[in-house]
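step=predict obj=Transmembrane protein 130-like protein n=246
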Amino acid sequence: MDPQCIGALLLLAIGLNQASASANQLNYFLKVTTDGPITSGAQATISARLMVRNGSQMHPAHPNAFHFHWKLQHTLSIKWRSEDSSSISVLAPLANIYDLQVWVTHADCWICLPVAIGFATLHVTDSVVGHVSLMQSNSSIDPEAGSYQLATNTSTKISFILYDPSNYFSTASYLYIWRFGDGSKMVTNESYVSYIFHTRGVYHLRVEVLAHLNAFQRKNGVYTATLNLLDPVRAIEITSNQDNRV
């Protein structure tokens, strides 16, 4: 069926549903999730979960009782779908923020009014996707207010954690360029380095990731973090000038 016809029928169904305020529409809830953001050229998995409301209780709808219908932007193409189409895998060739729409009908009546309608967005970028992680003394460090609290004169493991849910980069080779904010620079093929900051202060860490997919295709990404270096407390001695005796 022509996509414009599908869109027109969907809008008509939405209008009829809103006008009738049917009990079915009030009893169902649709949650749509994606595994984005992803890099362009990779595949994303999009899933819709239909829940049934029974009073104050929510429970999953029977998987074989409903069918899921998707409306995607033209540059997205479906590469795989589950039996009831509640989950699909799409190829995203271009960077963009894609709007997704899904509606659910009873499995034995695809042209009936939808019992639920859901929306989501898929973020696709040309960059390598991931994040920076830091560790000191065998413990991970979480950022506070956008910066990391670290101790000086202590070995710090700095890692880049790749996010690649479809294994798009499984055969890629990598180059990492690390700049630590104190004028020092390192270039590695490994996704982690160990570094010691000797002086307290604020440092702006920068890592550039170069992923070579083949001889003609390369992707890159730049990630930064603010590091607040503090001198560690070596020891605390508490004394009292009172001698309590019984």
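step=describe
The chain is about 10% helix and 50% strand.
step=end
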